[in-house]
Amino acid sequence: MRIGFIGAGAIGAPLVRNLLKAGYDVAVHNRRQSTAQPLVDAGAIWAPDMKSLAEGAKFIFSALPGPAEQAAVYRGPDGLIAHCAPGTILLDMTTSSPRLVRELAAEFEAVGCEMMDTPVSGGPKGAATRKLAVLVGGKPAVFEAARALLDVIGDQVRYIGPVGDASVVKLAHNCANYGIQAVLAEVMTLGVRAGVDPAVLWGALRQGSLGRQRAVDRLADQFLPAEFDKPNFTLLLAQKDVRLATELGREIDVPMRMASLTYADMTEAVNRGWGARDSRAALILQQERSNVAIKVPREVLDGILKNEPI
């Protein structure tokens, strides 16, 4: 079976190699042919344009830098939409705007093709080793048709929901990742400025409750089941700890912007009378600001934690 692949960058190139190793004929297109040449040397077929890429391809992948490149490749008289044959399935790995993804999916459907957003998480190393999470948004039947192919490129393929939903999850994942990094950078600079060796500080953080449990898993403790009145650690005590950290920052001239925002929410929550509730009760404020209520049954959470690979 012939596969089309658009994008031979840090993610695309190792995925093409995995498809070749699995025995697929892969036609590849890239803005710069020189970047794709190593893949051609490895057995891929060079496709100079969308017409030649789409010819005979039942499935077409794309891994592009962002929304602008995605729209440029898909739309217009020379774009993929104009040349894909009815029945073609598009698997787009671009981290993109959910709105644009849904618009493009509708445009593909209008010409008899199907598009799923399939963003990945694991980076170039994960793409090369197939230690890659693949999030999938689209029609269930289309997902089932593409499942075997997706299993070639990733070891954790997860169906999320309708087209565009996978892109929502990917943006949430990446935003959380970089936000957590910013907080960790803040506390690392606090500790080092206060005189602690960075390696020692990092090692100690890893051995605390934060380091021993994945940050995302900790959401299942009180936040997701909305069990704030069964405190693991009270909000009043947590507020005190964050206050002391921000005070230390002021004493040694370390900006604590993330911690200050956290402390402000904690203080508002305490002023509402929630001091004896679990520390995560302060997170209710974000739900209120977003007009969202989150409550997941405990048995559902336990099932996810039990069955998910680490």
Largest sheet geometry: 6 strands, parallel
The gyration radius over C-alpha positions equals 24 Å
CATH architecture of the largest domain: 3-Layer(aba) Sandwich
Q: What is the H/E string?
A: EHEHEHEHHEHEEHEHEHHHHHHH
Uncertain segments are: none
What is the name of the CATH topology of the largest domain?
Answer: Rossmann fold
Count of helical stretches: 15
Provide the CATH top-level class of the largest domain.
Answer: Alpha Beta
End-to-end Cα distance, whole Å, is 33 Å
Give, in spatial order, the strands making up the sheet with the most strands.
3-2-1-4-5-6
Gist?
With 310 residues, the protein is of the alpha/beta class. The chain folds into 2 domains: 168 residues, 3-Layer(aba) Sandwich (Rossmann fold), CATH 3.40.50; 95 residues, N-(1-d-carboxylethyl)-l-norvaline Dehydrogenase, domain 2 (Orthogonal Bundle), CATH 1.10.1040.
Describe the structure.
This protein has 310 residues and is α/β, with parallel strands linked by helices. It folds into two domains: 2-169, NAD(P)-binding Rossmann-like Domain (Rossmann fold, 3-Layer(aba) Sandwich); 213-307, Orthogonal Bundle (N-(1-d-carboxylethyl)-l-norvaline Dehydrogenase, domain 2), CATH 1.10.1040. The chain contains 15 helices and nine strands. It has helices at residues 12-21, 33-41, 50-54, 67-74, 80-83, 98-110, 123-129, 140-153, 165-193, 198-207, 209-212, 235-251, 257-274, 284-290, 298-307; strands at residues 2-6, 25-29, 45-46, 59-62, 89-92, 114-117, 120-121, 133-137, 156-161. The strands form two sheets. Strands 3-2-1-4-5-6 form a six-stranded parallel sheet. Helix 12 (235-251) runs antiparallel to helix 13. The two termini are 33 Å apart.
